[in-house]
Amino acid sequence: MAAHDSGSAADGALTRPWESHDFGRTVHRMPRRVARPSTVEEVAELVRGARGEGIGVAARGRGHGMNGHGLVEDGLLIDLGDLDDIGAVEPDRVRVGAGATWHQVLAATTAHGLTPPALTDYLHTSVGGTLSVGGVGGMALHHGMQTDNVLALEVVTGTGELVTCSPTRDRELFDTARAGIGQVGIIVRATVRLVPAFNHAKWFHLAYTDTAAMIAGQRTLLAAGTPSFLQALGAFDDTGTFIWSIDAVFFTDVPEDVTPDILGDVHATEITSDTLPYSAFADRVAPVMELRHQSGDYWAPHPWLNLYLPDAIVDAELPAVLAELTPQNMGSTGALLTYPIPTGKVTTPGIRLPEAGTAWLIAVLHSDVDKQTDGLATWERRNRDIYDRLRRSGATQYPISPPTFTAAEWREHYGTHWDTLAAVKDRTDPDRILTPGTGMWN
Length: 442
Ligand SMILES: Cc1cc2nc3c(=O)[nH]c(=O)nc-3n(C[C@H](O)[C@H](O)[C@H](O)COP(=O)(O)OP(=O)(O)OC[C@H]3O[C@@H](n4cnc5c(N)ncnc54)[C@H](O)[C@@H]3O)c2cc1C
What we know:
The longest helix is centred in the last third of the chain and has 17 residues. It contains 13 helices and 18 strands. Helix content is 27%, strand content 24%.
């Protein structure tokens, strides 16, 4: 097991050590120690040691969180990067180490013509990291979230025990470890559901300048149910006009030069298309992140906002959010992402969606916050204001990014799931050492 003292590792251009911040770079907490175990038994031993020492423990996947939940002041940070084993690929499942990235999982499974049914947009996050929050992407219209597509978990609890849980084995632990933000255990392995993978992605880009037309277009496509993948991404162009592009993607084995009839009903101002190999489509955000590296934005603060809106308010509230954005405060590579999710497809109890048939993810993904006149403090205030306003109309937060919740807000967030979470927490982490960065039990 490799371990090093805090401050011994630095991350490229950073002035602060990597273990003291996440991708958000809005919260900084310095652990007492970092350990990089290579077996699940070592994870259990580390947790038992930390419990004996009376310090907090947090798991580190790939550090792409944005609110400091995975940081631990004067505690133990367990970097799971070496727990990236991929087991034998079976026709309907694969058992993987929680530190593996979805990119690694996809590479292994597509070699057998298989894929996890639900992928996040960015694949270079860890299996344990996204299963701890949800894992949502443009395939949610058919498959829900990644937490809805996991068959079993192996978890190290806050007492250092290794426990396997599933729908038929310690169901309460299974239901609270998924989307449980590391509160009841550290996920060390997951058995992920697999389905046949198509060879290609036929990707239609539907352009809009009118937000209402874009929303209507996505509703039409959702009702038809024919795209394999559905999202819309918007950004300011060079003239300062905000342009939406619905990405309606149809997975296929044999690419054909045919435009599906449904695209005649979505009233886009322009329709263009590409055909990509399925794996290249799935990994499409990696080049975007490379651009953020090149521009330096990767190292800037990212107080992104991720909310789920009820269908009933999206027509009024998405334009209201958009009205707060400008070419300056979105930065050079900033974007606004939105897509509908049928709530019936999401069965993970820890995922809190609005009480409605359809929820809309809206994600404000600005860039260059360090170079803006708005700056971090303004964005934090704006995020809080937007969240507070929309929460009153039934919106919920995807808790990967600000605003930071108080303990009372966590309780409200989890709603009817809270009592189960608290009971499992009492059982599996009686000293409350796991993932203290959420502030959930303060
Ligand atoms: C560019 C970018 C694109 C993204 N796109 C998407 C997207 O399309 N869909 C989506 O759903 N999310 C997306 N996210 C958010 C991201 O998936 C989540 O923040 C995820 O938790 C990050 O995984 P990670 O491995 O980097 O976890 P980390 O940032 O290392 O950890 C995140 C949280 O999970 C906990 N944790 C990590 N591993 C474990 C474990 N094994 N057991 C228990 N707790 C653990 C940590 O303690 C921390 O609280 C994106 C983030 C970025 C930066």
